Amino acid sequence: MNASENTNRKVPRHVAIIMDGNGRWAQARGLDRSEGHVEGVNTVRRITEAASEAGVDFLTLYAFSTENWNRPKEEVDALMHLIGIAIERETPDLIKNNVRLTMIGDVERMPIEALERLRGCIAKTSHCTGLNLNLALSYSARWEIADAARRIAIDAAAGKIDPSVVDEATVEKYLSTSSIPDPDLLIRTGGDMRVSNFLLWQIAYAELYMTPVFWPDFTKADFMEALTQFGNRERRFGLTGEQVRGS
Ligand code: IPE
Ligand code: IPE
Ligand code: MG
Prior knowledge:
- The protein is of the alpha/beta class.
- It has eight helices and six strands.
- β3, α4 and β4 form a beta-alpha-beta unit.
- α2 (33-54) runs parallel beside α3 (73-96) and α3 (73-96) packs parallel to α4 (112-124).
- It starts with 13 loop residues before the first strand and ends with a helix.
- The site of one 3-methylbut-3-enyl trihydrogen diphosphate has 12 residues, from β2.
- Magnesium ion is lined by residues 20, 190.
């Protein structure tokens, strides 16, 4: 969906989060990095609840990037195992809380055990009408945009679309987020001021909120603070303040 469809809503319709800082949280306690990921799952549960309660419609969580595959094998294996276990364990509560799970990314690269559990949870929550929890797994924005370009080229070569009319709306249709609005608010925990290949197309007009708090320490109150700051900002989408305020 297009940025211009967004309005100055006080509650963001779509919040995207770069959940960073698990490893440093663990290392600061003399623990293994994977302990930070375990604790990070608790934050996912907490913030999913908080987003539901606040009236957010879409919550996209960056759980594993394309580049994260290059981490030490033990950490990748531990993370994949954890994702599978956590999804299995959380599915009943997701259903109870009317949360629908979806995922974006090059998920075929994931181990089959984790992937099957994710697909099971997606099927079991497909009837849910509350929050859409969207997990970005094996995801990178450059992968997504290149994948869209490839599929557009294939469809053009097959005569399904006219190459001369490919425009922004066409590209959006081929992105993995085609059925959901662009993020209104992008949160990054862990203190770094970068977007690390996350939703590069979709965050064109997102409000950015970076916090030094490590993801395992990120509370509902921290999330609500981000929403409050979002509510106090004026989004202009390239217009003048007067135009936006209708004065
Ligand atoms: C974010 O925490 C989770 C993933 C990338 C999977 P990190 O593991 O990147 O934690 P830091 O940034 O090293 O502290
Ligand atoms: C971004 O965190 C990816 C996820 C949160 C899944 P990283 O820890 O991978 O990002 P960089 O390496 O610090 O940019
Ligand atoms: Mg990190």
